[in-house]
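FAQ: What does a ligand-bound record look like?

Like this one, built around flavin-adenine dinucleotide:
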Amino acid sequence: MRAYLPSYELISAAQLQEALGVLANEPGVWRPFAGGTDLMVLLEAGKLPHKKYLNIWNLPELRGVEVTASQVTLGALTTYTEVQQEKVLQAEFPMLCQAASETGGLAIQNRGTLGGNIVNASPAADSPPALLAYDAELELVSLAGARWVPYHGFHIGYKQMGIKPDELLTRIRLPRSSEKLQHYYRKVGTRKAQAISKVCFAGTAQVRAGKIDDLRIALGSIAPVPLRCVQTEDALRGSELNKTSIDRAKAVLANEIVPIDDIRSTRNYRQQVSLNLLEDFLQHLSA
Ligand SMILES: Cc1cc2nc3c(=O)[nH]c(=O)nc-3n(C[C@H](O)[C@H](O)[C@H](O)COP(=O)(O)OP(=O)(O)OC[C@H]3O[C@@H](n4cnc5c(N)ncnc54)[C@H](O)[C@@H]3O)c2cc1C
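The answer part, i.e. the structure of the complex:
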């Protein structure tokens, strides 16, 4: 049942300082409203308990893409459409572009933002595995100042994360690599479009002199948070690619992930598909 609209408040800020002032004056009272693609679903379903929202869609400080020699920095309001259009992302961060192209349909891609995807903190979200595999960092800003934190470790439990009520996620930073990395991204869902992931896999690595290097692996929908699989990475780093190392990595991954049964899939299916995707990723590397 749709929520009773007059019980909600939505105010707008035109500049970052103004928005931060609203959040600082009454911490926790006003919550950011970006593209609204997650929030509006809850509103329509009558399941949006929080009542007061601060529209941040018009903040210029949260927009744009900045490219330097060592990094690419995206405003938190960067939409999926903008991600797909950005040349440097297509060339160097293709998994993020693929995640964006497989998120929702065109309307969602025009309105949904990377920042919203991160702070909504769904374990099934599609950008987080790519952002984790690219070792992204987040800029969190309040009136007290700005701080950069690694994205790995930002999600600390189901829908819990290291952002304070008076902070906004303002920018997402991706380190550029001088190495020629290989990228492997797979979203497994019920359909090819408009489907929430059953399992989502993002892996990047380089093979040097027959050994795996610069390896990062992250999965979605297999734990309470989007998971960077550091134990599996450790098991593979420096190894030669062969059946023994692949089987060992699969055994480690099987213990590292904690899939659940829910309406979209079963624990067993998620477990098996995750292992299959790891094997496919590693076989792509060896090829
Ligand atoms: C039909 C449909 C299909 C979808 N398909 C997919 C899909 O395939 N894959 C997928 O991952 N997601 C999907 N989504 C979910 C959604 O589109 C994404 O999570 C989107 O990125 C959310 O961004 P937003 O700007 O709309 O967030 P909002 O709905 O505005 O906000 C989401 C949450 O993030 C907080 N927030 C937003 N921005 C900030 C910020 N800068 N700082 C601090 N807090 C912030 C808000 O307070 C809120 O709690 C789908 C949604 C719909 C309706």
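Follow-up question: can I read anything off the structure? Yes, for example: The two ends are 52 Å apart (CA to CA).
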